[in-house]
Amino acid sequence: MQKTTEKIGWKANWQIYKFQDPKGQIAKEMQNGLPTEEALHRHGEAFIGLENFSSNLALNEGLQELIDLICGLGTPTKWDNNNARIGVGDSNIAVEATQTGLQAVTNKAFKAMDSNYPQRSNQTVEWRATFGGSDANFAWEEYTVVNAADDSGKNLNRKVASKGTKAAGETWTLSLQITFS
Questions:
Q1: Which one of 20, 67, 102, 166 has the lowest number of neighbouring Cβ atoms within 10 Å?
Q2: Which domain, by its residues, includes 15?
């Protein structure tokens, strides 16, 4: 008899595109949904770098909210363009599934989705938010997607990875792609 294994796969990929943007033009364009490739084409001279990193931990509160959405139980909140925020903080406390958001006390920030995000292609969903010149200017150590303006919502996930210190006048666009299989 053949043994059957049941599981749902979750593969996360994060990207941070970094630009010098003292006038905030790139931030405005990205927040209005400009594709990253087009931003690189238009503003290549302002491009500072790209950070790619993978994996994260799904948080219990996010998984429970996801189950409620699938089953139509209660009044769950979607991680859609109206509700979802990407959060960044400066804590490097290890990730635990029981956490309920970013662990930073002082330095954390949340940004609404750029226009037309999240997006889905097949089994991959992408959330994207752009942090302009005066947003989140501190060391970026932790990341989440939450379904509220701050940690008061349900955090889908959390990732800890040191990706540099964002300075005034820089625009950083952070995206998370999760592929389900």
A1: 67
A2: 10-180
Contact 18, 170 (CB under 8 A): yes
| pLDDT of residue 154 exceeding 80 | yes
Asked if residue 34 is part of any domain, the answer here is yes
Tell me if the pTM is above 0.85: yes
Give the count of beta carbons closer than 10 Å to the beta carbon of residue 102: 25
pLDDT of residue 76: 96
- Tens of pLDDT, residue by residue over 40-56, are 999 999 999 999 999 89
Burial class (CB in 10 A: 0-12, 13-18, 19+), 144: buried
Please report whether residue 2 resides in a domain: no
* d(C-alpha 176, C-alpha 129), whole Å: 9
